[in-house]
TrEMBL record:
It holds the Pfam family NAD_binding_1. Binds 1 [2Fe-2S] cluster per subunit. One of its GO terms (biological process) is pyrimidine nucleotide biosynthetic process. PROSITE patterns: FAD_FR. SUPFAM superfamilies: Ferredoxin reductase-like, C-terminal NADP-linked domain, Riboflavin synthase domain-like. Keywords: 2Fe-2S, Iron, Iron-sulfur, Metal-binding. This is Anaerobic sulfite reductase subunit AsrB. [2Fe-2S] cluster binds at C231, C236, C239, C247. NCBIfam families: sulfite_red_B. PANTHER family: ANAEROBIC SULFITE REDUCTASE SUBUNIT B, DIHYDROOROTATE DEHYDROGENASE B (NAD(+)), ELECTRON TRANSFER SUBUNIT. It comes from the Bacteria. Residues 5-96 form the FAD-binding FR-type domain. GO terms for molecular function: 2 iron, 2 sulfur cluster binding; flavin adenine dinucleotide binding; metal ion binding; oxidoreductase activity.
Amino acid sequence: MNNIVKPIPCEILSVNRESLHEYTYRVKTDIKPEHGQFLQLSIPKIGEAPISVSSFGDGWLEFTIRSVGKVTDEIFRKEAGDTLFLRGAYGKGWPTDQFKGKNVVVITGGTGLAPVKSMLNMFCDQPDFVKSVTLISGFKNEEGIIFKNDLDRWAKHFNTIYTLDKDQKEGWRVGFVSEFISEIPFDQFGEDYEVVIVGPPPMMKFTGLAVVKNGAAEEKIWMSFERKMSCAVGKCGHCRIDETYVCLDGPVFNYTKAKYLVD
């Protein structure tokens, strides 16, 4: 019987710098997650942190990590060949079966692009899986842009709007992602669409409101939360909001539920 909370030592295969503060770690493992799930990454005597899977393949997983605390700072000291401990995968991922044959709108802010990267790559590799993809992805500034090669690749296959909050960059728009919601042709989609929103809580709040204002039905909107998860199995209560355990009931929630998940 597998122990669902026992960390497993795994070799780091490569480390790639994405931006000024983000690195992507490829780790050797046979764990097979669903798009949108997360794992607990840990270092003995230091601690552990919940990190979404940004990409995966046969025998490996990738995690795009921003240095924001003790555990991630220590992970940033690791190099290829070193060991990282993993446990998971946990939580409910994106309902990709529900997305089949539909027009999918994905709106991300900053590192919120990481939890949808593997799904976007699937849409790109399997062009018949969905009817169309509209991707609006925003970053604070040029130094914060991640997945540059993927962004270029997706622009060739999807309808894309890439934005920076204030900086000027050739081919990019200026402004918050919520400012471009009106350009999504919801009136042309009929009922065949789904919307995915991932980013900092304020970004998700105002983007969700803007999407609804522009004609999207609440039940067709999905969000991912990464709020203070600790044990990942619903025992510690650290991520609890009222009766909801983010680690068990999420991290992916339908907007009809997500709009009430406020601390």
